[in-house]
Specification:
Blueprint (H helix, E strand, L loop, with lengths): L5 H19 L17 H17 L2 H6 L3 H10 L5 H11 L7 E9 L6 E8 L9 E5 L5 E5 L9
Helix pairs in contact: 4-5
Length: 158
């Protein structure tokens, strides 16, 4: 390497190493890990709870009752002295502390006593901190969530 000074030789040798380290981020672990995917049904249960709250706000019996299992549908109809859930849903919504202000809070995941069925319990809040109970949803084994207990009703579910 005639004509190249020792300083220049060091620079030329170090340049590719510096470039490699810069491009690979030094190859070290920065401690950040990818967030685990929610594969426990949390996102789907939260969405079902939000859909229920929207059906209450809209007084939409078709959408609301589609999110309830059969015993919960019967309970809504019974509490409003109606023939079916769809006909009773708007009155059920009006019976809540403030149907327009219903909000879904934290959704807690769990299982039934046998550990076989996933259960989600959603905190339901109304303006003025009025309580009417929570919303309990169960996974049907195929990824769909249905409510087994609804706010404002003391019976129902399994």
């Amino acid at each position: 390497m005639r004509g190249i000074t020792p300083v220049r030789r060091t620079f030329l040798a170090a340049a590719p190493i510096a470039l490699t380290l810069a491009l690979t981020g030094c190859g070290g672990d920065d401690g950040a890990e990818a967030a685990p995917e929610q594969d426990d049904g949390t996102a789907a249960a939260e969405q079902a709870a939000e859909d229920f709250a929207q059906a209450v706000r809209d007084r939409d019996g078709e959408a609301g009752c589609a999110l309830l299992d059969e015993p919960a549908q019967d309970l809504v109809a019974q509490t409003q002295e109606a023939d079916d859930c769809g006909a009773a849903f708007a009155d059920y919504a009006e019976s809540l502390p403030d149907a327009d202000g219903i909000e879904v809070g934290e959704v807690e995941m769990g299982t039934d006593l046998d550990g076989e069925t996933e259960i989600a319990t959603a905190d339901i809040a109304f303006p003025g901190d009025e309580e009417a109970g929570g919303l309990e949803l169960r996974e049907d084994g195929e990824g769909a969530w249905t409510a087994t207990r609804v706010p404002g009703a003391t019976l129902g579910g399994a």
